[in-house]
Write a structure and sequence with these properties.
Radius of gyration: 36 Å
Strand order of the largest sheet: 3-2-1-4-5
Number of domains: 4
Order of helices and strands: HHHHHHEEEHEHEHHHEEEHEEEEHHE
Structural class: alpha+beta
Shape: extended
CATH architecture of the largest domain: 2-Layer Sandwich
Largest sheet: 5 strands, mixed
């Protein structure tokens, strides 16, 4: 019943052959085989007749080995691959496909072109390429010559606390943990705080070695403005510290390997001590880092400490601020972060009109406007009719803004009454509130809103 030749069969065809053999040996009825195979009894009868006549070969697909009726002509394949080989030999399938359509009018799918290029040896799939070799790099000889920095987002407190980021500073020469800090996210201000603490404790290293995170490097291919640097790189430039960006995780392997050890040891130490908050974790980190260094740090090849002391003119409070420049208009206004800043009319402000002024922002959101060494007093008003929540004096634009705010609030309340989603008691209270606000507006007794005074 079986053919002596070697057959190529799919798993589905092998299953059918097995059940047909059981039917032939009378170990199973055709009805049972139909139920097992999910076929009708009549279909199993046809399969069994073919199986008795020609054996397992009768169960194989008759299309196997035959060209598809939907395949593209061989002449088109030869022409396409020839053009790719001649003009686009180093192009990937996607880009080559785009150029074939744009330049030559040949419209084939990317996947079809990919298979043609692989079949003719023009393109090598990624899984068949040789893995890139990352040869080890010798350590820098001195402490503080190169410090690798990175953030690790992990469940540091497991299910006892929030997921957070650990900022890690590892010295390249010794593998010492120079600084650890738990933060909620990997942001510029968080790196400002960690780096400032590092500098106050150790001094200025020669260079920081990081990945290509947007904190360290502008990631936009065509940035619309700026000088091509980030706030962190600007701060490091003012401190005369170089910042280098690695092209791969392997290039900064010391901090990457430190992550693996920390995710094991630090997590368990936090668990043993019942630490479940960022604040408590940061209080414990110096003790953990000291124990880590006694176990894993190594002495530098050169005993010289390359850290440089902070200069007397290094004002860290000033350096680690968000700094941008905005043009002061002739009306003495500045637009910054969806806010309009009304600069107080003084001789200094008049002299700065039409020029770029420095806008400095602290982590708490406080904004300072400065032209040269002179600080400009200003009042911040939110755009789109919204007034900031800080307590300061009003200004001449306040009446118009409050009128818009009152109008928007009444419109939202009227919409709530129309929809009928509130209860009768809530509707009654809402009508009373609306009457009070309308009456206060008529009498001029509306509570004065206040806007933020920038100092």
């Amino acid at each position: 019943m079986t053919s002596p030749d070697l057959l190529t069969m799919s798993r589905k065809e092998l299953d059918r052959a097995e059940w047909m053999q059981r039917v032939h040996e009378q170990r199973m009825t055709q009805a049972d085989a139909a139920e097992r195979l999910g076929l009708s009894v009549r279909q199993v009868e046809r399969l069994y007749r073919a199986y008795k006549l020609s054996g397992a070969a009768a169960l194989t697909s008759k299309k196997r080995g035959r060209p598809s009726s939907r395949r593209l002509p061989e002449a088109l394949r030869a022409e396409t691959v020839g053009l790719v080989r001649e003009k686009y030999g180093d192009f990937g399938p996607t880009l080559a496909c785009e150029k074939l359509v744009e330049v030559h009018g040949i419209d084939v799918s990317v996947e079809t072109l990919r298979q043609w290029m692989i079949g003719d040896g023009v393109w090598l799939p990624r899984n068949q390429r040789l893995r890139r070799a990352h040869q080890p790099r010798s350590r820098r000889p001195c402490l503080g010559e190169l410090v690798q920095i990175d953030g690790c987002n992990h469940e540091w407190f497991e299910d006892r606390g929030p997921r957070c980021v650990l900022l890690v500073y590892v010295d390249d020469a010794t593998s010492r943990l120079m600084k650890l800090l738990f933060v909620r996210s990997e942001s510029a201000f968080d790196y400002f705080a960690a780096t400032r603490s590092y500098l106050e404790e150790h001094g200025r290293p020669l260079a920081f070695y990081s990945d290509k995170h947007s904190v360290f490097r502008v990631t936009a291919k065509e940035p619309h403005g700026g000088d091509g640097g980030t706030q962190f790189s600007r701060a490091m430039s003012e401190l005369n510290i170089d910042i280098l960006c690695a092209n791969s995780p392997q290039a900064k392997g010391r901090v990457e390997r430190a992550h693996q050890t920390l995710q094991d040891r630090l997590v368990k130490e936090l668990r043993l001590r019942g630490i479940s908050s960022i604040e408590a974790g940061n209080a414990f980190l110096p003790e953990f880092a000291a124990d880590y260094d006694t176990r894993f740090a190594r002495p530098p090849a050169n005993p010289h400490d390359a850290h440089r002391a902070l200069r007397p003119d290094d004002d860290l409070e000033e350096i680690f601020r968000w700094k941008e420049q905005r043009k002061l208009t002739g009306n003495l206004t500045i637009h910054y972060r969806r806010s309009l800043y009304l600069v107080e009319d003084t001789l200094v402000a008049r002299a700065a009109a039409g020029k770029l002024v420095d806008v400095l922002e602290r982590e708490d959101g406080t904004v300072i406007l400065r032209h040269g060494d002179d600080e400009l007093e200003a009042t911040a008003v939110r755009k789109e009719g919204h007034v900031s929540q800080q307590d300061v004096e009003s200004n001449k634009y306040l009446g118009r803004i409050l009128e818009q705010v009152r109008h928007d609030q009444l419109a939202r309340d009227e919409e709530t009454l129309r929809t009928g989603k509130a209860t009768l008691r809530q509707n009654h209270q809402l009508r009373l509130d609306m009457l009070r606000r309308v009456g206060a507006a008529v009498k001029g007794d509306a509570a004065p809103a206040r806007v933020a005074r920038v100092r």
